[in-house]
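Tutorial handout. Part one gives the primary structure; part two gives the three-dimensional structure as tokens.
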Amino acid sequence: MSVLENQLSEATKKIDIASNNVEINAIIENLVVTLMDSEFSSIWFYDEKNAQLLRERDSGVKELYINKKHGVLYKCFMTKEPGIYNYLTSEKNYVASIDNPDEIKIKSKIIFPLINNDKLIGMVTAYTSVKKIKIFTEDNLELLKAISPYIINTICKMHPNAKIQGSEEDVENFDETLAFMANTIHDIRTPANTLFGFLDLLEEQIEDPRLKQYLLNAKESTSFINDLTSSMLDRISSHKERKESIKEEVDSIIFFSGVAEMFSSNMYSKKLDYNVFIDPQMPKEIITEPIKLKRVIMNLINNAYKFTITGNSVEFSVKYKKKEKQLSISIKDTGIGIAKKKQKEIFEAFKQAEDTTVLNYGGNRSWFSHIF
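Part two.
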């Protein structure tokens, strides 16, 4: 997990247990201060009805009336464009009551409008006094841009009326973007796979240990590209399946045996004992969402395969509880396992049981067993 992801995760945990908007505001302001390496930060919510920006702190609610049409902040508000002002008081449009509401010896300031579906939700600012010389850069703007959806979502928790639902046109455009991304990713995968094949052939012809190491590094890079694109395609596919998957009747034995058979050759190649049990007493037909169910089972078996060392075992079983009329589907392995205190965390997106997991095994999620 990256440093940014970790910081956002920690902030989310604090927000979840916060009791009021003042506490939430403080958490987000502290997050921005840390990320910007600034001295202060302000999170402003735009109250459209009263044409004012609001900030909630222990000292009370601060109000900035935008209809006065003064200040650098007003300029960013009206244009919906961010701004960097490393010598704020020298700016032509600077107005102390608007741009320096904390009445400090202000030096530099960065301002970023928070926009959702072309509607301004609020403003986030980071700033320093003469005590802490800070030169804000385009990199700081890019970072604020990256976390702006997170801040917007937090503001929407504080002020539910700020939530804006996406239009049908937005959804269609998003789907078109996903389709374009999928095609582009496939275009990247093809030459990467071809390059890996050439490197494989070249490795067989070279005996120099030093050159072999260079080739190994190059092959690892192409494998990383392949893993990365596979992960991206999985996310796109998952989004599509969530929209399109519908319930239908399937032949239970054919369905589960087909999923199990997909991993037979890999298990054999890795010399793993692959034990499959499909209860013959289960109904011949079941009603399910086959695309979703297959995807979950495949992810679980694949992780069991990936995290189990040669010579150990993987078990896939489907049992029918006749009295309850339920299927129990489980995947068990004798792999590295997960510490009990980590078991809840792995069901969060992009979380691994350990930070070293991605280095040793690859991937960005870690699911080992699940009971349906």
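Part three, for discussion. The first strand starts at residue 40 and ends at 47. The radius of gyration is 27 Å.
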